[in-house]
Design brief:
The protein is mainly alpha-helical. It is built from 17 helices and no strands.
Length: about 290
């Protein structure tokens, strides 16, 4: 990766995106999203999660969302889409999600951080990075790129983090398909790295039954990617590394556009905000894990 502002160090883009993704994801586990969506009539956890992530598409049905999300069970999505839009219109869900982001970040980071020059700087850098994103083959990114940029810096940062997350995620789906990992295998192999969700949260958020997760582990064992204890084999670890490297390649453009100095500064700022959010209890203690 190179830029007019100097070469980016290896995996610099990934290290920059990770804390931004953490900031983005805080909203999905916040009491604010429950309250705001509940006021619209969405009280079931799955309906809140699915509506919040798909509202940028408009009144979309289950099929395109299953394709774009990749690792959600289709039947879970079809249980809520398109019917959820008869309860709450997409534009109302988007407004509720932004209000939830506002409340979540203020609670986790504090008013001083929200109003700080560093927050404004991070927002400006992240938005500049999004100028390098591309729409082709990236449905979730492209849908969110049509949304207006919020004026408040902390919400502008959250919006930019969303764009960068979905841009990388769309590219990651391309890499998963190329690697021949089905949705369950993709989730389980990620969890085996220690960075994915535990079975409890895969069932709750993605809709797969425990039996389906166990069958997925057997398929991964048959491919030599998991061992008997459910840990990655050398081949499994190598495959996950290859997937992330391919995702980096597909996601290089925004960070090349921002340049090495900008990426380094955005990483520094993002890590600080993400660490503060995690320390403030942004995520359930049992969210991550293998099994």
């Amino acid at each position: 990766m190179t830029s007019l502002n100097g070469a980016l160090p290896e995996r610099a883009a990934r290290r920059c995106q990770q804390p931004l993704n953490t900031l983005h994801a805080t909203v999905y586990f916040s009491p604010e999203i429950v309250r705001e969506m509940g006021a619209l009539g969405l009280e079931d956890f799955s309906s809140v999660n699915i509506a919040g992530r798909t509202a940028a598409f408009g009144r979309v049905g289950a099929g395109p969302v299953t394709a774009a999300f990749y690792n959600y069970k289709h039947e879970r999505i079809a249980r809520h889409l398109p019917g959820v839009w008869d309860v709450a219109a997409p534009q109302d869900v988007l407004a509720a999600r932004l209000r939830a982001a506002d409340g979540t970040l203020r609670r986790l980071l504090g008013e001083d951080a929200v109003a700080s020059p560093e927050m404004a700087e991070a927002a400006e850098l992240a938005l500049r990075a999004t100028e390098g994103c591309c729409r082709g083959g990236r449905p979730l990114y492209s849908a969110h790129a049509d949304l207006p940029v919020p004026e408040a810096p902390h919400l502008a940062l959250w919006h930019a983090a969303t764009l960068l997350r979905e841009h990388r995620g769309d590219g990651h789906v391309m890499a998963l398909v190329r690697a021949g990992l089905d949705p369950v295998e993709a989730l389980l192999s990620h969890s085996a790295t220690g960075g994915g969700m535990s079975d409890k949260w895969l069932v709750r958020t993605r809709g797969w039954a425990v039996e389906e997760l166990n069958a997925g582990r057997e398929r991964l064992r048959a491919r030599g990617l998991l061992d008997g204890a459910g840990e990655l084999t050398a081949a499994g670890a190598a495959l996950r590394d290859e997937l992330e490297d391919e995702t980096d390649r597909l996601d290089a453009a925004p960070y090349e556009h921002l340049g090495a100095a900008g990426v380094a500064r955005l990483t520094e700022l993002g890590k600080g905000f993400a660490a503060a959010a995690v320390a403030a209890g942004a995520f359930p203690a049992d969210l991550l894990g293998n099994g």
